[in-house]
Amino acid sequence: MPPYLLPISIITILLLYKLYQRMRFKLPPGPRPLPIVGNLYDIKPVRFRCFAEWAQAYGPIISVWFGSTLNVIVSNTELAKEVLKQHDQQLADRHRNRSAAKFSKDGKDLIWADYGPHYVKVRKVCTLELFVPKRLEALRPIREDEVTAMVESIFNHCTNPENKGKSLLVKKYLGAVAFNNITRLAFGKRFETAEGVIDEQGLEFKAIVANGLKLGASLAMAEHIPWLRWMFPLEEQAFAKHEARKDRLTRAIMEEHTLAREKSGGAKQHFVDALLTLQEKYDLSEDTIIGLLWDMITAGMDTTAISVEWAMAELIKNPRAQQKAQEELDRVVGFERVVTESDFPSLPYLQCVAKEALRLHPPTPLMLPHRANSNVKIAGYDIPKGSNVHVNVWAVARDPAAWKNPLEFRPERFLEEDVDMNGHDFRLLPFGAGRRVCPGAQLGINLVTSMLGHLLHHFDWTPSEGVKPDEIDMSENPGLVTYMRTSLQAVATPRLPSHLYKRVAVDM
């Protein structure tokens, strides 16, 4: 038998098996897939918009083939509820591509773990120990420190005579808050000095994050076509080196905390301390502790900065909403002090601004894939075991059947009707819902609201000189999280007495 016949026979058998599967099941409609590559060449870079367009043509549940893997995408409220509530248990597993498998040590963390005893255990640690109101309140000084540090650096920029009337890059300041806040919460360390100089560990941390993104993006097509993988072998050495580097840094920080705890006799509230003191109680391996810490960093670093940048872009485009939020802040907080998290219950409009920004611009517009652990039916269609199901959160939040004038930025809609954002109302799902809802949702909401409150209370915001509000580019960058394609540039004008722009530094 000629050697080339064997691979041809294997491919033929696989294609015939896939054809049999498609004929056996009543799959959701969708664009016609090509042999081997499926719909990969048809998908536009900004995937959630592409899937929303296809939903307009084929209906709110569609089949999209990533190579030989079936991906089902749902795009309205009813189907989101069916996926995340009615069939939550059958769809609670995770699809891990090769990079996710490597980064999570094959699901030893929370984000990439399949649903089972390990997932239930680490989820319990998160909901009963880490993200409880008492701990979030104890860590509040860190959040307020970082937000006031942001205000001080914006103030220093815009009161510098050289910058008079010049715009600033908003993302730069938001990113600093997100970076310092999450490293302090997770690792109990501020890698950056007051002068903005990042120490050695901080540089190593940033290099690890950047390298992880590069490695994750390097696999491309071969991820979706298993029989092509021999042509695109996994860079085992590069991944092993990356993981060793990540483990080395995390273990060094864990060791520092263990020594400090032995010295002082008491544990701090940071997540690293909490996990180390809970290690025995919950039988957590070192890999799981490292995985959980990096989950928090992955989930919490970019998302808050992204959410606030979109909210600020909307407020600059809608000066009426900006003014209304500022009037509320002036009435409740006044001009003699700065806003704190304890003011939130008295600032309903500010909370509505945060909600409306998260509705129109969810930082993770496509929920991470839920993998079917058994055959399941959704909307009368078959979802075979092993398929991936995605909820298009972005499309659900713009569903005209669920929202009046869905494309309009109108925070008032949440004053007229209270809509839960923590996964109980399936019209608004920035943090997911069901068994895999984000355990850190409240922490994210608090930080986004705090950043917005300070930015609006301390400054008036207008577009760069020569740019009209409706000329601000509101398109998204491709990727798992949605950065603005054109980073927001805006002019900040102080509006409070100058003594209120000082950072409130805390050492904890």
TrEMBL record:
<dbReference type="GO" id="GO:0005506">
    <property type="term" value="F:iron ion binding"/>
</dbReference>
<dbReference type="Pfam" id="PF00067">
    <property type="entry name" value="p450"/>
</dbReference>
<protein>
    <submittedName>
        <fullName>p450 domain-containing protein</fullName>
    </submittedName>
</protein>
<comment type="similarity">
    <text>Belongs to the cytochrome P450 family.</text>
</comment>
<keyword id="KW-1133">Transmembrane helix</keyword>
<keyword id="KW-0408">Iron</keyword>
<feature type="binding site" description="axial binding residue">
    <location>
        <position position="438"/>
    </location>
    <ligand>
        <name>heme</name>
    </ligand>
</feature>
<dbReference type="GO" id="GO:0016020">
    <property type="term" value="C:membrane"/>
</dbReference>
<dbReference type="InterPro" id="IPR002401">
    <property type="entry name" value="Cyt_P450_E_grp-I"/>
</dbReference>
<keyword id="KW-0560">Oxidoreductase</keyword>
<keyword id="KW-0503">Monooxygenase</keyword>
<keyword id="KW-0479">Metal-binding</keyword>
<keyword id="KW-0472">Membrane</keyword>
<keyword id="KW-0812">Transmembrane</keyword>
<dbReference type="InterPro" id="IPR017972">
    <property type="entry name" value="Cyt_P450_CS"/>
</dbReference>
<dbReference type="GO" id="GO:0016705">
    <property type="term" value="F:oxidoreductase activity, acting on paired donors, with incorporation or reduction of molecular oxygen"/>
</dbReference>
<keyword id="KW-0349">Heme</keyword>
<dbReference type="GO" id="GO:0020037">
    <property type="term" value="F:heme binding"/>
</dbReference>
<dbReference type="InterPro" id="IPR036396">
    <property type="entry name" value="Cyt_P450_sf"/>
</dbReference>
<dbReference type="InterPro" id="IPR001128">
    <property type="entry name" value="Cyt_P450"/>
</dbReference>
<dbReference type="GO" id="GO:0004497">
    <property type="term" value="F:monooxygenase activity"/>
</dbReference>
